[in-house]
Amino acid sequence: MLQEKEIRRLAESILKDSGLFLVDVNVRKDNYIRVLIESIDGVSIEDCARINRLLEARLNRDKEDFELEVSSPGLNAPFKVFKQYLKNINKEVDVIMKDGMKISGKLIQVDNNGLILDIDDQSKKPVNEDRINVSKYLLFSDIKSTKEKINI
After folding, report:
1. Is the pLDDT of residue 124 over 80?
2. What angle do CA 27, 29, 34 make, to 5 degrees?
3. Where are the beta strands (DSSP E) in 40-91?
């Protein structure tokens, strides 16, 4: 069976200096390999195809058969790596805290310990009153998941 650690190492070496970064690697028992990549500017189908070809060329199909998929995480996938937070600065996000509370707001800043959300507290103010944004610092250790907010 192919090892996730080895696939991760190969993918990171391929992505180095490409403007793309690794989000996740998953290797199932049936050797189905899923590699998720991202970029600050977004990922194209061509990016996925190129990384797929480069990664497949470094794996030995004669030694072990596998199926390989390279894609971006998708719009509704929770953030898994720090760079995804950086990519989403100044965008609206939904944060689910470990205690179950959901906090929505604009991602203003990120550091190694947490993030700052600018929360528009509109729901608690009458329409004719001035509304203020409140900045809130959230620790990563208290966060269960964070996703980009999709407004339809």
Report:
1. no
2. 25
3. 67-71
Tokens 């497949």 appear where? Answer: 56
The answer to whether 89 and 111 are in contact (CB under 8 A) is no
Q: Which domains does the chain have, with CATH numbers?
A: 4-71 (3.30.300.20), 82-148 (2.30.30.100)
Would you state the pLDDT for residue 59? 93
CB 20 within 8 A of CB 12: no
Q: What is the pTM of this model?
A: 0.85
C-alpha span between 87 and 99 (Å, rounded): 26
The encoded tokens of residue 91 equal: 């965008």
> d(Cα 46, Cα 23) in Å, to the nearest integer?
18
